[in-house]
């Protein structure tokens, strides 16, 4: 099973640039084409929040048109830039999204179980797993203790050293980690929000964040550093379940020289 993860697309209304500089629609279109060209193709595509920038209906309409060419089934989650009701209204065909309350859900159709946890706090940059959401996660994980599982959320449940983003972190991350620690079937925790590929151990498993297909958060580990973004290579991640293990690959979007062989046709190493 191959899970493609795309996150932090930040789509605006047609013709509008993010931060007067980033054509996020163009970058998402490139990501869609790149994912569609994969061989083997992904079985499923998850989009882990910040789908749009201001939760406007016109932004979700634009986003929907951009992802329409994706060939694999797509599952959406909210980030801090999204709106629950706006997502429900904008994607009525996505019946896995609950019709009311938090946008928590499970997908059971593949070898790896997908568990989505809504961390949105309306109007805030940080996220939360409140008691209600933690209780839902406990019940959901306890219902299938033998099934390999990926837990998906927008806000990563760990600090990264990027101080501004750590100030907009996940509330109750310690309680979240304690729930994960009681469920060894959780193979991976996947998140977005950081616009970078970052890994950390959480609750006895690996948590990873995914780069954006557009702009990336600047890696600045100085205390109190000003937040900035850079046009580093865009990307996404592939989470590959094979031989009882989940392996995560970070994929760079674009065209690059190669591939070139390491050996001559007769097998001699090229010097």
Largest sheet: number of strands, sense, barrel closure = 6 strands, mixed
CATH topology term: Purple Acid Phosphatase, chain A, domain 2
Low-confidence stretches: none
**First CA to last CA: what distance?**
38 Å
Short recap of the structure:
The chain has 271 residues and is of the alpha/beta class.
Structure description:
With about 270 residues, the chain is α/β, with parallel strands linked by helices. It has a single domain (about 1-250), classed as Metallo-dependent phosphatases (Purple Acid Phosphatase, chain A, domain 2), CATH 3.60.21.10. Helix content is about 20%, strand content about 25%. It has 6 helices and 15 strands. It has helices at about 25-35, 55-65, 85-90, 130-140, 165, 175-180, and strands spanning about 1-5, 45-50, 75, 105, 115, 125-130, 150, 170, 185-190, 200, 205-210, 215, 230, 235-240, 245-250. The strands form 4 sheets. The protein has a 6-stranded mixed β-sheet with strand order 4-5-7-9-11-10. A 5-stranded mixed β-sheet has the order 3-2-1-14-15, with no helix packed on it. The chain is globular and about 65 Å long. It starts with a strand and ends in a 19-residue tail after the last strand.
């Amino acid at each position: 099973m191959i899970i493609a993860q795309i996150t932090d697309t930040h789509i605006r209304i047609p013709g509008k640039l993010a931060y007067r500089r980033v054509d996020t629609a163009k970058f998402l279109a490139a990501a869609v084409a790149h994912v569609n060209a994969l061989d083997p193709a992904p079985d499923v595509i998850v989009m882990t929040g910040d789908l749009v920038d201001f939760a406007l209906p016109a932004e979700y309409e634009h986003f929907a048109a951009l992802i329409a060419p994706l060939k694999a089934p797509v599952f959406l989650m909210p980030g801090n830039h999204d709106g629950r009701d706006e997502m429900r209204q904008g994607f009525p065909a996505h019946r896995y999204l609950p019709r009311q309350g938090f946008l928590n859900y499970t997908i059971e159709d593949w070898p790896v179980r997908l568990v989505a946890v809504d961390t949105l706090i309306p109007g805030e940059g940080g996220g939360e797993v409140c008691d209600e959401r933690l209780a839902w996660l406990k019940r959901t994980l306890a219902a299938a203790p033998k099934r390999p599982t990926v837990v998906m959320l927008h806000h990563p449940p760990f600090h990264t050293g990027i101080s501004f983003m750590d100030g907009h972190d996940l509330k109750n991350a310690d309680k979240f980690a304690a729930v994960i620690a009681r469920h060894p079937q959780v193979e991976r925790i996947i998140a977005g929000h950081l616009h970078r590929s970052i890994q950390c151990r959480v609750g006895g498993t690996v948590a990873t964040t995914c780069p954006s297909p557009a702009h990336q958060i600047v890696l600045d580990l100085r205390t109190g550093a000003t937040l900035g973004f850079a046009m580093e290579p865009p990307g996404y991640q592939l989470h590959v379940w094979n031989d009882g293990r989940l392996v995560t690959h970070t994929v760079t979007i674009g065209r690059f020289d190669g591939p070139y062989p390491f050996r001559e046709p007769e097998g001699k190493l090229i010097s």
